[in-house]
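User: Design a sequence. Structure:
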């Protein structure tokens, strides 16, 4: 996305990726887009397929105590979310990049960065050949396990980290969604989430232990537990079908401050991780690169580094609000470890309040559809 935005503003860039193109476009990850991401894709010419295939959701359901209550995003905020897989977003951006003939290199290795506070350079190997790229700015969009964040000098970064005592067991199944919108459920057996990827594919999650053995969860056990945790007294339950993907997702919150050193700027998972409960990971990454693209463009337009210098501060204000929201959703919807009867009843009371108070519903809706994105003046 950063390369796409920069190209539209006349700024050259080179994109290098250590994985194969097939891996990038086939790996199923996040699938909920905030309103600002949808609008950006449409405005910048990569939203045609999104508009055809994306599933717009005007609200979300919260289930507890055997009932479901709906939060109406559209009525409360005038905005919505759209279900469209992250790998599909990447596929669209790759196609757009290819159409520009600008550099995009997959399966690179031995990547390193240097000269961060003077003359930035990126070194890498591609097809057995060594390459050295001199540049004005390096964007570290290389994920939590990438090489850019560890390249900061010692003592520059402060890491804020929280690891949760539970995980998600997630599946993809060939089953038509039985609800047009997501259903978040809290039960005395733990959390569950009903979602979807298309009119024929359902995405579902169960709270489990972080060290859970996926082999201990045959399909029959998964469906039994999902039906137990998601079924409500009005007769609603998820449709079942063949499971074609399953895995365990750990839960953590992480922020690195600052997100920049010299001419190296971190964006997305390289700078921050959120638990998936609030659907913020992809959306925060796009917000980061919107700010960064604007700052880089201003630098080339005017020579001013004011916006570049303010990048970290600008992004972190929104990131910490998203961290708060993701933590809040997670703590409200997951059983504590160890399970505590007082906390469970408090959670039920909180869900009851949130779904019966307009102020409570608006708080959830505003955060879920996406808070405003500020850029330095």
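Assistant: Done.
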């Amino acid at each position: 996305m950063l390369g796409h935005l920069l190209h539209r503003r006349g700024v050259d860039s080179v994109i290098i990726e250590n994985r194969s193109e097939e891996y990038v476009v086939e790996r199923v990850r996040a699938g909920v887009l905030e309103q600002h991401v949808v609008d950006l894709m449409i405005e910048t010419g990569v939203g045609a397929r999104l508009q055809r295939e994306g599933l717009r959701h005007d609200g979300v359901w919260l289930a507890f105590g055997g009932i479901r209550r709906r939060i109406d995003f559209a009525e409360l905020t005038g905005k919505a979310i759209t279900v469209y897989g992250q790998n599909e977003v990447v596929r669209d951006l790759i196609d757009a990049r290819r159409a520009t003939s600008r550099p995009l290199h997959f399966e690179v290795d031995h990547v390193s960065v240097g000269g961060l506070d003077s003359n930035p350079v990126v070194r890498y190997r591609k097809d057995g050949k060594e390459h050295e790229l001199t540049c004005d700015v390096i964007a570290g969009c290389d994920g939590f396990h990438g090489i850019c964040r560890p390249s900061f000098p010692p003592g520059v970064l402060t890491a804020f980290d929280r690891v949760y005592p539970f995980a998600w067991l997630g599946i993809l199944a060939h089953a038509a969604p039985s609800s047009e919108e997501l259903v978040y459920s809290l039960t005395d057996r733990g959390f569950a989430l009903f979602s979807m990827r298309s009119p024929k594919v359902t995405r579902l999650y169960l709270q489990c232990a972080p060290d859970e053995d996926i082999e201990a969860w045959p399909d029959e056990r998964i469906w039994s537990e999902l039906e137990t945790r998601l079924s409500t007294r009005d007769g609603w339950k998820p449709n079942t079908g063949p499971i074609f993907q399953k895995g365990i997702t750990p839960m953590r919150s992480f922020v690195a401050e600052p997100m920049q050193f010299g001419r190296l700027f971190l964006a997305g998972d390289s700078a921050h991780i959120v638990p998936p409960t609030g659907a913020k990971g992809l959306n925060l990454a796009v917000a980061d690169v919107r700010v960064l693209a604007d700052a880089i463009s201003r630098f080339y337009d005017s020579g001013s580094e004011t916006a570049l210098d303010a990048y970290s501060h600008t992004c972190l204000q929104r990131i910490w609000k998203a961290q708060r929201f993701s933590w809040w959703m997670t703590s409200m919807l997951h059983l504590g470890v160890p399970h505590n009867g007082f906390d469970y009843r408090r959670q039920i009371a909180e869900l009851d309040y949130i779904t019966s108070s307009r102020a409570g519903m608006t708080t959830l809706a505003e955060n879920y559809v996406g808070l405003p994105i500020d850029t330095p003046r």
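The CA atoms of residues 268 and 285 lie 4 Å apart. The domain at 2-60+72-160+253-334 is CATH 3.50.50.60 (FAD/NAD(P)-binding domain).
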